[in-house]
């Protein structure tokens, strides 16, 4: 690549403002306002509590990045991107970008990436005085907003998880760290005879029960608040772990796998849904996954893993990896069985 091209490419890569400009306008509710129709920046500023000149400069950047249209000077309108940022969109990305919410709060730890490089991370405690899970527990509103963000993501993947695993031999599935249960509810709806247990932190499980406990699927579910580092409730013949292990360093991920293996016993299964890292350049989602891996390092002290790394952990928990498949959105579905049942 010629130096001129490399210079332009690097300017784009070093992008300082777009990620934060996006978060700022989402926090101010600008996508909701432009959804009503094209609006002059003076009205947008007045209704969102911003200074018109500052808002115009932020929106000019985002219009040039394709988030809004600017059909006339200082007039901004919606696009397919801004629609997904509206609060009333059923799969709104707002919970992931709201600067007053827990996810963008975690993103702010990125300013300490140098320290994470020198220590191996995480840097959440350095930034906010507490590790992330303690922080969410200590601030219930933040914890609830975190659950809402996870539920939003679950709405994208629940159908794929329900369709992607073979549930025919499962009688009772426990969704471990299942959040408010969006994925479990979908699995139970798809398999009418199946029983479920939703296991997560007590306030999260309570929110799940409130949301879908009264539904037909909810009637087949036990809502169980507790820690997945403690002995899990008995009765399930399969544990489901959706985007849980990547939150944790190996030592803790192994502890969760051991609790699951103990809970399902020698004839049970542990079903893992996570994105798996491939060595080399990888497919279209590879850069996004590499980025997510850094968020895991900085915020949670976790990591995205390769299949062999997951297999290594599973082996230490007495589990052997069987079928591995991938959903259309690139989530890997990994079936683990007890080593003893796989051998005999
Ligand atoms: C990344 S979220 C995934 C949620 C859900 N599986 C999904 O895919 O939407 C991780 C979940 O682990 C839960 N969690 C964290 N620490 C936990 C603990 N010690 N015991 C039980 N659940 C925990 C969080 O409350 C959160 O719901």
TrEMBL record:
Catalytic residue list: 246
Binding positions for S-adenosyl-L-methionine? 200-201, 227-228
Its name, as the record gives it, is O-methyltransferase
Give every O-methyltransferase C-terminal domain span.
Answer: 114-319
Record-annotated O-methyltransferase dimerisation domain positions: 17-85
Provide this UniProt record's keywords sorted from A to Z: Methyltransferase, S-adenosyl-L-methionine, Transferase
GO BP terms in the entry: methylation
Q: Does the keyword Secreted apply?
A: no
List the Pfam families hit by this protein, alphabetically.
Answer: Dimerisation, Methyltransf_2
Q: Name one GO molecular function term.
A: O-methyltransferase activity
Gene3D superfamilies cross-referenced by the UniProt entry: 1.10.287.1350, Vaccinia Virus protein VP39, Winged helix-like DNA-binding domain superfamily/Winged helix DNA-binding domain
């Amino acid at each position: 690549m010629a130096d001129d091209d490399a210079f332009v490419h690097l300017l784009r890569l070093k992008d300082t403002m777009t990620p934060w400009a996006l978060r700022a306008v989402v926090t101010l509710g600008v996508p909701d306002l432009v959804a009503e129709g094209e609006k002059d920046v003076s009205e947008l500023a007045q209704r969102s509590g911003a200074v018109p000149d500052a808002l115009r400069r932020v929106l000019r950047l985002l219009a040039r990045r394709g988030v809004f249209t600017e059909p006339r000077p200082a007039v901004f309108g919606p696009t397919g991107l801004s629609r997904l940022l509206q609060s009333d969109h059923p799969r709104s990305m707002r919970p992931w970008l709201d600067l007053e919410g827990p996810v963008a709060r975690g993103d702010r730890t990125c300013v300490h990436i140098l320290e994470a490089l020198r220590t191996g991370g995480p840097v959440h405690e350095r930034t906010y005085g507490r590790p992330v899970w303690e922080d969410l527990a200590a601030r219930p509103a933040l914890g609830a907003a975190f659950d809402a963000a996870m539920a939003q993501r679950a709405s994208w993947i629940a159908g794929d998880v329900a369709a992607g695993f073979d549930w025919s031999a499962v009688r009772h599935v426990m969704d471990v760290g299942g959040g408010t249960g969006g994925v479990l509810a979908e699995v139970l709806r798809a398999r009418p005879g199946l029983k479920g247990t939703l296991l997560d932190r007590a306030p999260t499980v309570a929110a799940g029960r409130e949301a879908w406990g009264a539904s037909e699927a909810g009637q087949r579910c036990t809502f169980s608040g507790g820690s997945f580092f403690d002995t899990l409730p008995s009765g399930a013949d399969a544990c489901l772990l959706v985007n849980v292990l990547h939150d944790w360093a190996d030592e803790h991920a192994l502890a969760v796998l051991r609790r699951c293996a103990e809970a399902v016993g020698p004839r049970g299964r542990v079903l893992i849904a996570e994105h798996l890292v491939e060595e080399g350049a990888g497919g279209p989602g590879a850069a996004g996954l590499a980025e997510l891996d850094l968020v895991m390092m900085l915020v949670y002290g976790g990591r995205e893993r390769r299949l062999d790394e997951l297999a290594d952990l599973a082996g230490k928990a007495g589990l052997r990896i069987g079928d591995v498949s991938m959903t259309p959105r690139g989530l890997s579905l990994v079936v683990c069985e007890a080593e003893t049942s796989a051998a005999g």
